[in-house]
Design goal:
It is a multi-pass membrane protein. GO terms for molecular function: transmembrane transporter activity. This is Allantoin permease. Keywords: Membrane, Transmembrane, Transmembrane helix, Transport. It is found in: Membrane. The chain is mainly alpha-helical. It has one domain: Hydantoin permease (Orthogonal Bundle). It is 71% helix and 0% strand. The protein is built from 22 helices and no strands. The longest helix is centred in the N-terminal third of the chain and has 32 residues. It is globular and about 65 Å long. The two termini are 14 Å apart.
């Protein structure tokens, strides 16, 4: 094994993680109070209480995709987009790798903006007026808290996420328990059944897009540090249950709150909407809880973004990497908070469109592993100096899914020609991208023996 190949896998002395570490990592990433907005959004598709509850549960199960990718990472001790080189080739992997990095740093910036606004709301509780100076102070405080996590190793990070799970997960439950009694139960149970095709399915798709599918690009980044002796089933259960439990509970409460807080899903600042519904004595705890729920998501985004940067062969020191991502975390929020607030809305739409490419990538990644799981990943396939530069089947399948996804997707600045009927104003195009890429790979896979990915495996294994 040469030096380049040694850099592909996580060092054996660092592969000491336990499944419970993954449970707390993904639990902490899903305790954010903003999850109630997802629940309210589901009801907004004109669904009954039973339909909304079922939609929340099915959507949360999208983390099975994250769990499956985590199992692959554990078995190989290799991070997500490093493994992705096998499915796309070294050069073919560059575009989805870049999209993954862009998606991570983009949502990281959005979460930093949200965290800054929450800290400003906390200052208002203490009668500290909002101005450019206090806004800048809040931005620097929140960004610094996230950047400090970049100095932690994997074991320290797991302990920190465990802390967030117990402390802020518990506080979130307290906040939700205070809000639940305001539910209008009669209105809730009287909501009529909506359409399963034009309401239920789009509701599930839009939540899946923002949860399991979105987080799939980070799955193996954490499981790569797991001990090789850990059972695959334990990895899967830890990831799925760790994410589904808090996500489903918080979304379920969101469906309840849709009766007492009808504007929560459409408000520009849902955090303040929830705050006004709470007793004044708990306002400080609430805003601290909201901040604490955002930080774990930012930590995961930051770590995976740094890993993705390295996978694109942009190798810099940890301090330089933190400087690059820190600058992005600060400059984008500065532009949004001080110059152009309209930019944030369009930026979020843009990041949503990137999700189509991420979904298509996930399908190709899963399909490639499924067909080649017995042979396993040869490090030569992942070596940037190796011969596996371009896997036509993987790249073609990705393009097919991405194009189909865009054809059936619409936003305020982009309209796919087939984004009509049940495909209008939702994320069904993203699910089509996933399914189309997977089917394309299945159809094209038999031709891989002719100078393609499979034959390369055989040659390099000899």
């Amino acid at each position: 094994m040469n030096k380049e190949q040694e850099m592909i896998t996580v060092p054996e002395n660092e592969r000491v993680g336990k499944p419970k570490d993954l449970f707390f990592i993904w639990f902490a990433a899903n305790i954010g109070i903003l999850g109630v907005v997802y629940g309210a959004m589901i009801v907004g598709f004109q669904l009954s209480f039973v339909q909304a509850t079922l939609a929340a549960f099915i959507a949360s199960l999208s983390f099975i995709l994250v769990g499956y990718i985590s199992v692959i990472g554990k078995k190989n001790g290799i991070t997500t987009f490093m493994l992705s080189r096998a499915a796309f080739g070294i050069r073919g992997n560059w575009i989805p790798n870049f999209l993954g990095w862009l998606n991570l740093v983009g949502w990281l910036a959005v979460n930093v903006i949200t965290g800054t606004l929450i800290l400003l709301s906390l200052m208002n509780v203490f009668n500290i007026s909002q101005n450019n100076t206090t806004t800048m102070i809040c931005l620097l405080i929140f960004a610094s808290l996230v950047l400090l996590s970049g100095l932690l190793n994997q074991q320290q990070l797991a302990k920190l996420q465990t802390f967030f799970t117990y402390v802020f997960g518990g506080l979130t439950l307290v906040i939700l328990a205070i809000l639940i009694p305001d539910t209008d139960w009669q209105q809730l149970f009287n909501m009529p059944n909506g359409s399963w095709l034009t309401g239920f399915l789009p509701a599930v798709s839009i939540i899946m897009a923002g949860t399991g599918i979105s987080w799939s690009i980070a799955g193996a980044d954490y499981s790569a540090y797991q001990s090789p002796d850990n059972k695959n089933s334990a990895i899967m259960k830890s990831v799925v249950f760790g994410a589904v439990i808090p996500l489903f509970i918080i979304m379920f409460v969101g469906t309840l709150l849709s009766t007492s807080l009808p504007d929560i899903a459409t408000s520009a600042n849902p955090i303040d909407v929830i705050a006004h519904a709470l007793p004044s004595w708990i306002s400080v705890i609430y805003f601290i809880t909201a901040v604490g729920g955002l930080i774990p998501q930012c930590i995961i985004s930051l770590k995976s973004a740094r890993v993705n940067l390295e996978t694109m062969n942009i190798r810099v020191s940890d301090h330089v990497s933190l400087t690059i991502h820190g600058a992005i975390m600060i400059f984008i929020p500065i532009y949004v908070l001080f110059i152009s607030q309209d930019f944030l809305y369009n930026f979020e739409l843009f990041l949503g469109l990137l999700g189509i490419g991420i979904a298509a990538w996930g399908a190709v990644f899963i399909a490639d592993y499924y067909f080649n799981r017995k042979a396993g990943y040869k490090l030569a396939l992942l070596d940037p100096n190796g011969n596996h530069t371009f896997n036509k089947v993987g790249v073609m399948s990705w393009f097919v899914g991405t194009i189909i996804g865009f054809l059936f997707t619409n936003t305020d600045f982009f309209d796919g020609p087939f984004a009509i009927g049940i495909f209008r104003d939702n994320s069904l195009g993203l699910l089509l991208a996933f399914m189309s890429s997977y089917l394309s790979y299945v159809i094209l896979h038999p031709f891989m023996n002719k100078g393609g990915h499979t034959s390369e495996r055989k040659q390099q294994a000899q």
